[in-house]
Amino acid sequence: MFDKSNSQPETGPFFARDRSWHPPAYTPGYKTSVLRSPQRALLSLGSTLSEITGPVFGHAMIGELDNDLIHNFARPGESAIGERIIVHGRVLDERGRAVPNVLVEFWQANAGGRYRHKKETYLAAIDPNFGGCGRTITDADGAYAFRTIRPGAYPWPNGVNDWRPAHIHFSIFGHGFVQRLITQMYFEGDPMIWKCPIVNAIPDRSAIEQLIAPMDWGNTVPMDSRAYKFDIVLRGRRSTLFENRREGN
Ligand SMILES: [Fe+2]
Q1: Which of 204, 207, 223, 233 is least buried, going by the fewest C-beta atoms within 10 A?
Q2: pTM of the prediction?
Q3: What CATH architecture applies to the domain 70-233?
Q4: Is-catalytic flag, 26?
């Protein structure tokens, strides 16, 4: 991902990868990682042309309600149940420069902690007016924003009594299929964060803290929504932790 409008060559200091930033692939406290983690040495495969050059996103592909999860699956005149919030931030590179024209996708459970998915088994009720996914494209300043409801925490089959803290999943899509990064955002002040085995698989406390969005009082809309700010840094010392890519691989 790079800013095409910036024709100046990179001359800044090299940002070395921090290989301890991401959790080890094998983290038994997070039970699924036992079977998912590679058992043999990794192989490096070259990218194909189609992986490097596509896809290309245009702003025209984004629908009017794609960044409004309160309404994008709701019946006309109705809205999703839950605490109304705005989530916004910027996608930045390791030098703090904006990364424009990036497809940002997000998905989450409803206010009761239930996903609308055929394999979902949690007993919390489905909200017929909430689909739980949306998308937007960053503007020239690398900024994105969407409306949603605050998701609920939910239990998951891992240990005897494990719960996911309230969270929103994010996908950041660059200019090619091999440039997709996945992460999760948590909410400031949630005590559930520190009890989650997935969160606790991350060895560095500051990496966890960068996944926690602070409440943004300044952008609260009176009588409507509170705001949370979540900046996403693609690489470098301030990099957001991406769960699908271990730095150095
Ligand atoms: Fe989730």
Answers
A1: 223
A2: 0.88
A3: Sandwich (2.60)
A4: no
